[in-house]
Predict the structure.
Amino acid sequence: MSDIKRGLEVLKSNVKTAPEKPGVYRMISASGEVLYVGKAKNIKKRIVWYTKFDKLPTRLKQMVALVDKMEFIITENEAAALLSENELIKRYHPRFNILLKDDKSFPYLSLDMREEYPILKKYRGKKTAGVKYFGPFANVTALDNVTDFIQKVFRLRTCRNTVFKNRSHPCLLYQIKRCSGPCTEMISKEDYQKSVQQVITFLEGKNTSLQEDLSQKMMEASDKLDFETALVLREQIKTLSAVSGNKKTAYDTLFSTDVIGFYQQQGLAVIEVFFYRHCQNYGNVPFFFKETQDTPGSEILDAFISDFYVTHDVPKEIYVPFLWDNTPFLEQALQTQIKSFQKGEKAKLLADASVNAQAALERYFSQHTGIMQNLSEMAEVFHLKKIPERIEIYDNSHNQGSYAVGAMVVATRDGFDKKSYRTFNIKNTACANDDFGMMKEVLKRRFDRLSEENKPDVILIDGGEGQLSAVHEALKDYDLSDIAVIAISKGPERNAGKELYHQLGKPAFALEYRSSLAFYMQTLRDEAHRFAIGTHRKKRAKSIYRSALDDIEGIGAKRKKDLLLFFGSVEEIKSATLKNLQKVDGVSKKTAEKIYKYFHK
């Protein structure tokens, strides 16, 4: 109780000196740990709220008991406060903040209007002047659906410039009517540009005017007895009508809107974001928040919107399930409108978004429950000291000693943690064809970087007693008292489901055939195998591209690729003239001379 009293005294003393201006505040413990970072339109008023102890959620009550001092940053306006808060949260990772662990980048469709024949392509990254972008799309599937439709109806090119400039005949996409063939002038520049404008009109949601325009052109083509063109236009109109017919009337005003659904249960919360652009649904994506017991939904939504829209495009409107005190601050900071609806079509959109959020959380609970049951049984069967929180699975892959790699896959109580996956290029070439030697090198390198934060509870190895011994030999200088090492080997006739499990000093045994735990252990092993094989193939494929070009100064990966695409092989590049070398996009006269001299020493 004395800690709480001390914390409240610190807060009350800071109320007296806190500025009545927009800015950011930090709650700091006696040890110097940043406990919490917050923003406010009026810092003084915000701190007063923390002194009303009885009204605080349990999480913030715990924080108040630890507060020893506060620091303030006054900002010019709300937008600057939001940016400062986001920067400080990412720097300090304060434990009492609701943190959005999000590194998602969302895909866009782009049209480079600076080109003579603009290319339709998927894009992620920074935006460039002169390029039109449409999105964001929630996922690649949503983007692929739109791309497929546009190719089918408007037939824009999707090939790279180096391919486009050097074609002598149309590609397969032209043959199956997914491209208009601008590379070989199967369509005039003017007509291609008209198609580009039609795509822009479609992506901007102006389907009605587009259909009217196409209908007029179809009638004109028919009057001129150009029935082939009229037929193409008719198919375009038919496809557009189908898309327009499937569109809900509720989307008609959603030109730049994100609709947010929210659901909270059993200490977990999920926010589901639906992207609507130009009256079209561009997909939805969920975001999960853990340990949200006693945390009000308004605080979770506030933290999400503050963090998410600092690093992602801000729409003109954000629909939320309810409004809260800080909504005006966010509107001012993000220069957007945050709205909520209690009735009508837009209220139904919000309700549907929350239903999707609930379904996402239920799926999470279902998956999590299954994993926890398997982990609990695993702890019992393998006599582990506790239910594992982190399992590391290792596998190797090579081709008769070539392109040897080791792979580490990580599984947690939430499933596979792909951010923690690691690959190891085998440095000791003497053991590149020796599975035991490779495993020793991988484990040694991994445990040289071991910390309390990334310490595994279980190490799972694909192999038998030999691999198990290799692991213990490699890690003999490390403390394995809290780490279980398990090897999984193929069973009789290499039958899936009849694997044998090995632990040091214990007889090998098999799990019950087709049991849930057996399937889980196989899944762990197979994921490591998949990752190791995939990494090995990428390394091998990369080596295929290595050629004499790599030894020429100034020839990087892109120029090498462009040269090979243009000429087809290194042999053709060797025999090319200076004049032909300069025809390759990005190859200057000076670079062409370097290439020519290298092959004609």
Notes: The two ends are 85 Å apart (CA to CA). The chain has a mean pLDDT of 85. The first strand starts at residue 23 and ends at 28. The chain is about 45% helix and 20% strand.
